[in-house]
Design a protein that fits this description.
- The protein has about 200 residues and is an alpha/beta fold.
- The protein has 6 helices and 9 strands.
- The chain has a single domain, classed as Aldolase class I (TIM Barrel, Alpha-Beta Barrel).
- Helices cover about 25% and strands about 20% of the residues.
- The strands form 2 sheets. It has a 7-stranded parallel sheet, covered by helices on one side.
- The protein is globular and about 40 Å long.
Length: about 200
């Protein structure tokens, strides 16, 4: 999110999280000097997530220390040690992971205890989401006791299938490009219908 009015409208739908991109290579980048007022829009019940890609650790620590964010999402090649340094400072860490990689569960064990959530997204040539789905059944063998967020090209038509998913560690879904009018600007009515449909299960 980067537009105050659009962010206010989305927050009225009461999502659990809203994201802010701090990666300069993204079309959704909040900018070199974002207005601090942007981060005060979400009410306390909505967690503010800052998304970083291979950002120097000190830079992430500095931004997290400004009080703008409740969590950080790491979308690059950050190491377990990098994640641990943030967690040791009381920062909630979401680590993006490749759901298709061979030996996935074994490789993820290195992050056990040093991240709070994984985010499984479809890998691409660059950084960030690709807007493409992967085969969600590949996660049926996921057994590491770390909750995960499901991402990767999720659109309005997926609400029914997502409601039927019953995986112990599935914590939530991350939606983005399929609900946008333009980069960083959400189609609020479409998002409202999706959230309502998802929550019917509960």
């Amino acid at each position: 999110m980067k537009d105050p009015g659009n962010l206010e409208a989305v927050c009225e739908l009461a999502p659990e999280y809203v994201g802010f991109i701090f990666f300069r290579g993204s079309s959704r980048y909040v900018g070199e000097k974002p207005d601090p007022a942007l981060f005060s829009i979400p009410p306390d019940r909505i967690s503010r997530v800052g998304v970083f890609v291979n950002e120097p650790l000190l830079s992430v620590q500095r931004i997290a220390g400004l009080g703008w964010l409740d969590m950080v999402q790491l979308h690059g090649a950050e190491s377990p040690g990098y994640c641990k340094a943030l967690v040791n400072e009381g920062i909630h860490v979401i680590k993006s992971a490749n759901p298709l990689i061979k030996g996935r569960n074994q490789r993820l064990k290195a992050f056990y205890g040093v991240v709070h959530h994984f985010l499984f997204d479809t890998p691409g040539e660059g950084f960030g989401g690709t807007g493409r789905k992967f085969d969600w059944e590949l996660l049926e063998d996921y057994s590491l006791p770390v909750p995960y967020l499901l991402s990767g090209g999720i659109g309005p038509e997926d609400a029914g299938q997502l409601r039927e998913m019953d995986h112990l560690w599935l914590h939530g879904v991350d939606v983005n490009s399929r609900f946008e009018i333009s980069p960083g600007i959400k189609e609020v009515k479409m998002l409202e219908g999706f959230i309502r449909a998802i929550r019917k299960k509960y």
